Each structure stands twice: as C-alpha cells, then as structure tokens.
Amino acid sequence: MREAAVQEADFDVGAEIAALSAGDDGAGAVASFVGLVRGGDIVEMTLEHYPGMTETALAEIVAQARGRWQIRNVRVIHRIGRLLPGEQIVFVGVASSHRHDAFAACEFIMDYLKTQAPFWKKEETAAGSRWVDARESDDAALSRWGG
Amino acid sequence: MLRVLYFAHLREAIGAGAEDVVLPEGVGTVGALRAALGARHEALLTAKNLRAAVNQKMCGMEAPIADGDEVAFFPPVTGG
C-alpha cells in the first residue's frame, strides 16, 4: 500500500489504523489524526490540489518524519473534491515501537502538510463562496520543529 | 516553452488553470516571469503572499527558470 494517497473516496479509519500494525508485533504504539470538515455556516467545501506535486510533497514530508523518528509504518490520506460538514478530509497514522515517536511524527506530518502540501480549500456558504485564507498559526506550528 | 499553472483564486481570476508560454527574453527567474505575465494577468501582481513552484518544488521568487520548466503560481496552501 502506498504511504501517501490523494483521493476523492472516503476512508475507513478503523481499517487504516489496524493495517498500520498488522503483522508487526514490534509495533507498540499507533497514533493517528483525522481532520474533519467543520460546519457552522459552511454548506460544502471543495478541495483543489496540484496533481503530481501533491503526491511528491506528501512523500517528502513522510521521508522527513522517517528521518527524525523511529517509524515502523505510516499512512497519509488526503481527500479532494467536494466534501460536506462532518466528512473526513485527512488521515495521518503512524506506527512505532514507542508512543513518543508515534505522537510526534503524527503531529509533525500534519504541521508540514498544512503549510507545504499544495491543497486549497474553498468554502460554500449561504452568502456565497470564499477561498480559505492561510493561518499564521499554521506557520507558527511549523516553526517549532526547527524548520 | 514553459508550462505555467494557476491554482485556487488565482486560477479563477485568470480564467485558466494552465497555459503554454514562450519564455520571454531576459526572463530568468520566477519573479521576472511573474512580472512579465502580470501585464496580461493582473491577479499575479495583486495576489497577497503569492507562492510558486518550479517543476513541482516550492521555491522563492528568486528561483531560476529555463525553457521546458513547469512553473506554478498559487496562494498559500490551506489543506489538512
């Protein structure tokens, strides 16, 4: 299975988590993150990406995480296209021998993905549509990993 | 020729996601290309925090470009 996938289809969190440590009794920890579409005034969200570069960027982020922590298995899934509030957008799962590496690598991958992977969100509301602005807090989250 | 790509609100403002462009004479960097194309696509000049990639790698406006490259312009990314 590819470590990083970009797809329109939804994913099964339970199956993804189980697959991370399947057949590996050295995996003592699995940490995961699931990003969801927030509701509020948002009726629908569309995720655009840069085909080709996206896959390369995600693979590069995973490679960087592997260089920093002991990772036994890792999986990143990012959805594209139209999504409704409550739907899953992104999954990051990391299996390691110990929890610290799993937690840290999972958070690192999300922080890098937020600022380095070429995805753009457009929100549809009753009042019209708007492209989501990048948040400075995302850059701040990235900087704590020492660039 | 250069393959030039636009994404998100830049794509909408320009009205196209991609175009083939003859590398203008004297243009050797992403920033110079931005200025040259800006004559036709004002959004390239007015976009806040414009980002770019050459051959699918993020880069700064000072990055060199050459004939045959794929150059992309886009706003800061907002995935995750």
Write a structural description.
The complex is a heterodimer of chains A (147) and B (80). Helices cover 35% and strands 34% of the residues of chain A. Chain A is an alpha+beta fold and 147 residues long. In chain A, the strands form two sheets. Chain A has a four-stranded mixed beta sheet, sandwiched between helices. The longest helix of chain A is centred in the last third of the chain and has 18 residues, at 99-116. Chain B has a five-stranded mixed beta sheet. Chain B is built from three helices and five strands; from the N terminus they run E-H-E-H-H-E-E-E. Chain B has 80 residues and is α+β, with helices and mostly antiparallel strands. The A-B interface holds A 35, 47-50, 52-53, 56-57, 78, 89-90, 110, 113-122, 131-134 and B 5, 7-9, 11, 49, 53, 56-58, 72, 74-80.
Topology readout:
The complex is a heterodimer of chains A (147) and B (80).
Chain A: E1 4-7, H1 13-21, E2 29-36, E3 42-49, H2 53-68, E4 73-79, E5 81-83, E6 88-96, H3 99-116, E7 119-125, E8 128-131, H4 136-143
Parallel strand pairs in A: 1-4
Antiparallel strand pairs in A: 2-6, 3-5, 3-7, 4-6, 7-8
Helix pairs in contact in A: 2-3, 3-4
Chain B: E1 2-6, H1 8-14, E2 18-21, H2 30-38, H3 42-46, E3 51-54, E4 57-59, E5 70-74
Parallel strand pairs in B: 1-5
Antiparallel strand pairs in B: 1-2, 3-4, 3-5
